[in-house]
Amino acid sequence: MTVGGWQPARVIEAVGATPSARLLHLQVPGWPGNDAGQHVDIRLTAEDGYQAVRSYSIGSYGPGETIELAVDEIPDGEVSPYLVRDVLPGDELEVKGPLGGYFVWRPGGAAPVQLIAGGSGIVPLMAMVRAATDAGAAPSVRLLYSVRSAEDAIYRDELAQAATDGGVGLTWRYTRAAPDGWTGHVGRVDDDVLRAAVWEPGREPIFFVCGPTGFVEHVADALVGLGHPSARIRTERFGGA
Amino acid sequence: MAVVSRGFGARRRESDPRLPPGQYLTEDFPVLSAGPTPRIDLDEWRFGIRTETGGEVSWTWEEFQALPIEDVDTDIHCVTRWSKLGTSWRGVSLDTLLESVESEAEYAMAHSYGGYTTNIPLDELREGQAWVAFEFDGEPLDAEHGGPARLLVPHLYFWKSAKWVRGLTLMDDDEPGFWEQNGYNMHGDPWTEERYW
Asked: What is the pLDDT of residue A2?
């Protein structure tokens, strides 16, 4: 895995995913493919040469020259508002990657897989859901997805289908507002939620936890407290603390 | 000439000569960690150095606090592209710590509680370039930012500033640490963008 230089990419599709997030499909000639969970650097250049670079997780996996990003807008951000509001199919940007060799899932492992996402932390875990489903490993995968409300869930419909058709064990956690007909509690992920939704320690699951720093800190600490070894918990955090 | 992204640049930030290429300024303090945050009891905390010939020295927390402590004001740069300017730290210089050992090694592997490792050329830990820091912004260093103590090597990308550091192993030959085995550069100079393999 040697990362080359910047490669030109073209936006081929841009669709709303939530009120604040958009799915972008990028065509990257020569893209070498990527593992589920990897990320990519995106470089934008203004007409006067000004540049900005940010890293985004990739929601797609596998071979092919098209990658999918899901970008959530940071209100006072510089790059995400452009990608969520302004960019259109046909526009060009540059990518470098794929990047990262640790927060990665590949088929073939014997251990059950526990995915835990907060907000837009779902993106690299969606790539893992897709990879596991395609590999016939969906029944060994559970996903706990914490969102403010149902409309804030990126990939809501595809996840529901992965659970119904593919057998991924899906648990929603709503922190602010539950959809109509929801009978569970509303609130942040706590020990009770983790005990109920997560593979028990005796099954020796491997964890992938992704979300805002505070969410990941809380969940990872709680998992250790419930008896899961630190070495089996892989994390990816974003935002400040 | 780079590809121009139509209409990009309206929300641009001011550039700052203290920012290395490809970095942006942040006011908060993001966290890059591969796993859960380890919690280390100060009574059990040790910092040790093992040389290439097997010599060893180590300090308890109390012994460590009795060493000369320096104030460090510096900019820090994370490979995930944020930089934070004018951060203030307190800690013990690696020059002080390395005085206690005799070594002709050229590289060091930093080891952390929790199992993290990272490799650094030994001459980049000397001459006022590196510290074991235990205070940030006038407060004890938070566990999620590497407390009780982390390595501080601010002239390299911040993954080299190992959190929860517990010691150095001095080596004749360079070896990759944790992120260096997982896609990041062996050296990590932010000014020449030594980010990835």
From this structure: 62
Asked if B105 and B52 touch (Cβ cutoff 8 Å), the reply is yes
CATH class entry, domain B44-191: alpha beta
Share of chain B above pLDDT 70, in %: 99
Burial level of A74, CB count in 10 A (0-12/13-18/19+)? middle
Give CA–CA dist A18/A70, Å, rounded: 10
User: Testing the interface with B: which of A57, A230, A233 to mutate, by most B Cβ within 10 A?
Assistant: A230
Residues of B in contact with A41 (CB under 8 A): 81
Domain boundaries, chain B: 44-191
What pLDDT score does B197 carry? 85
How many CB pairs below 8 A link A and B? 130
Contacts of A240 in chain B (CB under 8 A): 26-30
Whether the Cβ atoms of residue B134 and residue B88 lie closer than 8 Å to each other: no
What's the pTM? 0.95
Q: Which residues of A8-22 are buried (b: 16+ CB within 10 A; e: fewer)?
A: ebbbeebeebbebbb
Q: What percent of chain A has pLDDT over 90?
A: 92
pLDDT range class, residue B194, cuts 50, 70, 90? very high
Check if the interface score ipTM surpasses 0.85.
yes
State residue A239's pLDDT score.
76
Cα–Cα distances in Å, from B56 out to A231, B91, B122, B190? 27, 21, 16, 32
Domains and CATH numbers, chain A: 7-99 (2.40.30.10), 113-238 (3.40.50.80)
